[in-house]
Write a structure and sequence with these properties.
Blueprint: E1 3-22, E2 28-48, E3 53-55, H1 68-80, E4 85-91, H2 102-117, H3 124-132, H4 138-143, E5 147-150, E6 155-158, E7 165-169, H5 177-182, H6 208-214, H7 216-225, E8 231-233, E9 240-244, H8 247-254, E10 263-269, H9 273-281
Parallel strand pairs: 3-4
Antiparallel strand pairs: 1-2, 2-4, 2-5, 2-10, 5-6, 7-9, 7-10, 8-9
């Protein structure tokens, strides 16, 4: 086996996000619920015997060695001391900087797929630990199951929320996660709750009020969605989403989406398409 084709890197939504405080190291205590959605980037991998890691799809916005895909491959190389390298290609569908996890998901798929391709035998738990060095969201994509996250995002409990249909709008703006979490007006005092018993009607995002003030495009998209269904922002934005109990309802609203908005429909999935692919190829 020297080639792996079409390995999915799915998007995620934060169905809620509560920020409970800021620690002395400036990391934030939070509570959130991650669910995957069935829109994905797709990556191809080919083994090399010279140890080089080559991402052969150009990214204008990110230098080759700074790309999380390349960093993930090199971290796995270093951890396992394998002599193998890889050629990597990506078919990009997920927006960058939208709060739906594109870069983190790409990194996770790289770790999982290359561990399989190189036959390096690293456990899922170890892969998640390696991924944490690349970003707080990477472990959730490695683990591949919808989950509550607490602490600074490193404590996971599996969850099985309703797998709704979602209409996601991608505002044409980039929201800096670092800028949001360092902003003096960010809500940081939400009381800690028993996340497993939180009713969906109480889901909220503590970043939303700040981001909608700072980014009018996000506020405009959210205002439009709220006319049709329960809607909120995911992560630190910029993407916003509305949830529907049936595909028919979601399609009906999607067909009314103004031309000024870019959006897509997707289905929530509690088991990641990446895990499904790994199971098929094992």
């Amino acid at each position: 086996m020297s080639i792996l084709n079409n390995w999915p890197a799915p998007a995620k939504l934060n169905l809620f996000l509560n920020i409970n405080g800021r620690r002395q190291d400036n990391y934030h205590e939070l509570q959130t619920l991650f669910q995957f959605i069935d829109i994905c980037d797709y990556l191809d991998f080919e083994s090399r015997h010279d140890g080089k890691i080559m991402l052969l799809t150009d990214f204008d916005e990110v230098a080759h060695d700074d790309n999380l895909i390349v960093k993930a491959a090199r971290i796995l190389q270093q951890h396992t001391r394998t002599k193998l390298g890889a050629n990597i290609w990506i078919k990009k569908k997920l927006p960058m900087g939208g709060g739906i996890g594109g870069g983190s998901s790409n990194a996770a798929t790289t770790l999982v797929a290359l561990n399989h391709l190189w036959q390096t035998g690293v456990s899922q738990e170890q892969l998640a630990d390696l991924g944490l060095a690349l970003g707080a969201d990477v472990p959730i994509f490695v683990r591949g199951h919808a989950a509550y996250a607490e602490g600074v995002g490193e404590k996971f409990t599996d969850a099985n929320p309703e797998e709704y249909w979602y209409l996601v709008i991608v505002p044409q703006t980039h929201v800096s996660t670092a800028a949001v979490f360092s902003h003096p007006h960010l809500t940081r005092d939400s009381a800690k709750i028993d996340v497993s018993s939180l009713p969906r009607s109480k889901f909220k995002n503590d970043c939303q009020s700040l981001v909608t003030k700072l980014y009018p495009q996000v506020a405009k998209a959210l205002d439009w969605l709220l006319k049709y269904a329960p809607s909120r922002m995911t992560g630190t934005g910029a993407c916003v989403f509305a949830e529907f109990s049936s595909e028919e309802e979601a399609v009906k609203v999607y067909q009314q989406l103004p031309k000024e908005f870019h959006g897509f429909l997707s289905r929530g999935c509690n088991r990641s398409p990446l895990l499904e692919k790994l199971t098929q190829d094992s």
